[in-house]
Amino acid sequence: MVLRLAVLVVLFGWTGISNAEEIGSVDTKFKLLGPDHKIKIEAFDDEKVTGVSCHVSRAVTGGLKGAVGLAEDTSDASIACRQVGPISFNGELESGEQVFSERRSLIFKKLQVVRFCDEKRNTLVYLVYSDKVVEGSPKNSVSTVPIKPWSAEPAARCSDA
Hints:
By secondary structure, the chain is mainly beta. 10% of the residues lie in helices and 48% in strands. It is built from 2 helices and 8 strands.
């Protein structure tokens, strides 16, 4: 049964709901064969909350196993979410709702970002963590976005620097 599921995953390229855009990466360890170990930075927008974007950094295992997609990446990840425009909601928000998911191994492990709403402080809370079918990891990171009015002033752009 497990072998059959593994074949389906490889054939159909299951990745969950990953909708991130790669921003950049840095090498952390040289590997003679295959790609180096690295840290990747990816960005994604919360589809139910217009005006909020998140950046996730995560460790990526290189080497031969990493090159063919058989490596299990570590549970190390960090998240930063910010208001990037006027905030509006596209549907009802559920506490602990998954807003991003990406596989970290062939079958058993995935990185997840879930959203909570701290109503008392009018703040969105985003949590990144890894889970496994059998045993998850306590490694996690959290980011908060206070819901505030948005200024109409144009801002400087990275490309202007």
